[in-house]
Structures are given as C-alpha cells and as structure tokens.
Amino acid sequence: MLAAILKDFNRLELEDIPIPRPGDDEVLVKIVSCGFCATDYKAIKGIRRNVAFPFIAGHEPAGVVAGAGKGVRHFKEGDEVICQPSGYCGVCQYCREGNSHYCEHAYTTGGDGPEDVRPGAFAEYMVTGESCLFHKPANISFDAAALTEPLSGAWKGVIQKSEIKIGDDVVVIGTGGIGLLCLMVAKAAGAGRLIAIDASEYARRNAIKIGGATHAIDARSSNLRQQVYDIIPGGPDLVVEAAGPIEAVKLMVDLRRRGTRWNIFGITTHEKFELDGGLTHFLEGRMDASFGTTPLAMQSAIRLMERGLVNPELIVSHRYPLSKIHEAAAVMGQPERNKVIINP
Ligand SMILES: [Zn+2]
Ligand SMILES: [Zn+2]
Which tens digits make up the pLDDT trace of 182-234? Predict the structure, then answer.
C-alpha cells in the first residue's frame, strides 16, 4: 500500500509498504478520507518535537472495513466507519469516569499525546481497535465523516464543558477550522449574538459565511473589549479561545463580565497569563478548558451531522490524493486555507 512516512522533520516520503494485519480485537480500515490537522503539519515541520520516527501521521480518518480480527464483534468487511484517533483501555479510573482522553493506557493512531503512537491514516490502510470505530451513517459523506474528531472537539468544548444555553451571547476568538466548528456548534445550540474575532480577513469572512457568526471583529484593531460591548452591552455569556497564541487568552480574560464562562480551547503552548484573584472571585467567572475527544463526543458529533444540524464539510477548502501530500502540506502552511483533506 502507499503510505506517507515521516522519516525525520521535513522528510516526508511516499513509500510502498505492506498492508498491516489487524490483531484479534483490531480492524483493518481502507482509508477514504483523512483530515490534515495542524498537529500533523507541526510534526512534519518540526514545530512539535515529540515525534518518534518513522511516523505515519493522519488522525482524522473515515473509511471502509477491509478486514477484522477474530475477536471483533460489531464490524465486518464493507462497513463504512469513522475512526476515533485515541484508543483507551475502558477499565482505568478515567475511562470509567467517561474521560477516556485521560486514559492511563491510551494509544493514538497518527496523533499526539499518548506515548503509544501507532501508524495513522496518511496511508491506504490503517489498523485500529474495534472500540475506536463508529458506524458511518449513510447520509454523511466520507469527507464530512473525516471531520468527526475536530467537530467532536468543538462539541465537547462548547456543549459539554461550557454548557452553552439557548440565547447565550458567544464570542469565539480565532476562526480557523476549529474555530469555525465552534461557531457552527454554538449556532446549532441556539446562540444569540455570535461574535468572531480574528486577525485574518479571510477567516472573518468565513466566520460569517460558513460559521454563521452575526459579527466579525478584526483582532488587530484597537479597543476590542469596547467593540464587543458595543454589540452586546451586557457582555458575553461565553467566550471561547480557539486561536492558540497567549494574546488570545489574555483577550478572553479582558472580555469577561460578571458570570462570563470562558473556555481555554486553542492554546497548547506553555505560556503564562495573569489573573486577579479577588476580581475573579467577584466576577464568579467560570473557566473551562477542553482537549481531545471521547466516545461520547464522537457519537454526539456524528448525531449533529446525521440530523443535518452541522455540516463540517463546509469548512473543507482543499482536497488532495495521498500521492500529492507534499502539495497538501504546502497548503497547510498558507494563511488562506481552511480544512485540507487527503483522499488516499
Ligand atoms: Zn486533529
Ligand atoms: Zn483507561
């Protein structure tokens, strides 16, 4: 099979390798679509350093079952499936609390986080555990299905962790791919005013056109707090940081009023910001955060798509066959792109 193997930073090579064999509880999936995540790009470019070579990236796949181990009960050859990128034991304390993304025995196929990193989906076939698979409803395209994991992250942050309520006025800082999904989920959940803040005009346009934002503000303009409060004088009920830079977190802190819930969603680097203890006390601000995904979040994202409440395919801006993965990687480095999909 054809696979894109990362041999070293900046050394991504297309190679013909044997099709992997599934173990007893594992399934072989023929990949139809796989999202190209910023995490993959950072591994290829050496922006994130926790990569063991050789590495096959790609952790947002959907495809068709091509083989199954003898212990597999719920999937058979020909089934259309969506893969959760993080495997979990199901038995540890965290798994039993419903937080399988904290699992002490976790593994990832093509992703980042656990120590046990297995080959991902920038290949024609991939093997994963049966418990990572979901049946793909027939009315969801494979490209949309490949976006289940990022959509599930948006669902987990906005719905599960920050508990958006109908009519909430929401600010989303950073409206690249994941920020757009947060906007779409917030809109589907009945947000009142939905304000997007981003430095890129392309991102702001998409926030309105695709994400359903009611307003978009240039992150580089001055007096951002005043601009937000001009639109919602009562201040935001919920602020979601889906940007990454520490400045976005600082802006979120600055946008709060009494009772505002805020979610640290985008930043993954270890940078500091300041909080006034007494002020935070009297604001009764509620800080949430969210990373990764869980079976509950995956299932909820699939339902949002199946019922037509959110169509993540709208955020796809580029599609490439696996043989053109280097072109896809180059596009990932450009500012004017949303989601890039690989179709092996
Ligand atoms: Zn991802
Ligand atoms: Zn576990």
Answer: 999 999 999 999 999 999 999 999 999 999 999 999 999 999 999 999 999 99
CA of 311 from ligand 1 middle (Å) equals 17
Q: Which of 3.20.20.70, 3.30.70.1140, 3.90.1170.50, 3.40.50.720 is the CATH number of 165-287?
A: 3.40.50.720
Q: What phi and psi, each to the nearest 5 degrees, are found at residue 80? A: -90, 130
- On the 0-12 / 13-18 / 19+ scale of CB atoms within 10 A, 291 is middle
- Residue 319 token pair: 């599609």
110 is written with which tokens? 């093509």
**β-bridge mates for residue 340, sequence order:** 36, 318
Task: Give distance in angstroms: CA of 263 to centre of ligand 2.
Answer: 25
Residues pairing with 246 in the sheet: none
DSSP string, 179-238: HHHHHHHHHHTT-SSEEEEES-HHHHHHHHHTT--SEEEETTSS-HHHHHHHH-TT--SE
- For 167, half-sphere exposure in the C-beta direction (CA atoms, 13 angstrom radius) is 1
Predicted TM-score (pTM) of this structure = 0.96
Residue-wise pLDDT for 188-199, tens only, equals: 999 999 999 999
Separation of CA 111 and ligand 1 centre (Å): 7
Ligand closest to the CA atom of residue 102? 2
Which is nearest to 102 in space by CA: 111, 84, 114, 110?
114
Domain ranges of the chain: 2-150+293-343, 165-287
Considering only the top CATH level, what class is 2-150+293-343? alpha beta
Using CB atoms within 10 A of its CB, is residue 329 exposed (0-12), middle (13-18) or buried (19+)?
buried
